[in-house]
Amino acid sequence: DGGITQSPKYLFRKEGQNVTLSCEQNLNHDAMYWYRQDPGQGLRLIYYSQIVNDFQKGDIAEGYSVSREKKESFPLTVTSAQKNPTAFYLCASSTPRGGEPSNTGELFFGEGSRLTVL
Amino acid sequence: RKEVEQDPGPFNVPEGATVAFNCTYSNSASQSFFWYRQDCRKEPKLLMSVYSSGNEDGRFTAQLNRASQYISLLIRDSKLSDSATYLCVVNTGKAAGNKLTFGGGTRVLVKP
Questions:
Q1: CA of A37: which chain B residue's CA is closest?
Q2: Distances in Å between the alpha carbon of B36 and those of A86, B1, B103?
Q3: Among B27, B32, B100, B102, which would you mutate to test the A interface (most chain A Cβ atoms within 10 Å of its Cβ)?
Q4: Residue A92 contacts residue A32 (beta carbons within 8 Å)
């Protein structure tokens, strides 16, 4: 079945360690996104990528890095520079609506990765 | 001012009643709008897109008011299973990098 797979689902790390969250999609979507959600809050955009080998910072990119070497994959690294890394991380993808890259449609989310930094 | 704002609730709704809530957005160039539903500790899922003329999907009705820069969601004949957090999502337009911005969510609790 087509979908988005995030791994790991749960992750515990010590303060100061870098961590990489995996996101893979087989939906043939061009655009991919990383969001962070804190308890009782909405989603905040970390990074997004509209096409392979290109990505843009979202609203809270500091302390994070991404790569988009393949269409299917958009891994997120939470670096030691991120001050409050404990959160629920959601990866999503979308396909342009009406064939126009500027008009994103439905977002398809993975099941999320819960990162706890001890 | 936040780009997308929602009343966090919770809205406590008797089963069978109607509930409605809004989402305001600050960027007048915003192009497309969506309502997502998120269950506790799960990923959001698309509930419905919001079209300029308003649209209905079963018991759910979405409206867009461009002049006042808000969208609304109305749920009729509420079911217990409608209990969730409803997230408003706005595409802020090409000039702003075509980002999808989420509101903080409105929590709805339907009670027997």
A1: B104
A2: 24, 22, 10
A3: B100
A4: yes
Provide the shortest C-alpha distance from residue B35 to chain A (in Å): 10
Order across the sheet with B55-57: list the strands: B4-6, B19-25, B70-75, B60-65, B55-57
Q: Which residues of A touch B48 (CB under 8 A)?
A: none
A70-109 pLDDT per residue, tens: 999 999 999 988 889 999 999 999 876 544 444 456 788 9
Q: What is the pLDDT of residues B6-50, one digit of tens each?
A: 999 999 999 999 999 999 999 888 888 999 999 998 999 999 989
Q: How many helices (H) and strands (E) does chain B have?
A: 0, 11
Amino acid at A84: N
Q: Which residue from A47, A40, A92 is spatially nearest to B107, judged by alpha carbons?
A: A40
How near does any CA of chain A get to the CA of B64, in Å? Answer: 17
Residues in chain A within 8 Å Cβ distance of B102: 35, 42-45
pLDDT tens across B69-107, in order? 999 999 999 999 999 999 999 987 666 556 778 899 999
Residues of B in contact with A56 (CB under 8 A): 97
CB B21 within 8 A of CB B110: no
CA-CA-CA-CA torsion for A85, A90, A95, A98, nearest 10 degrees? -90
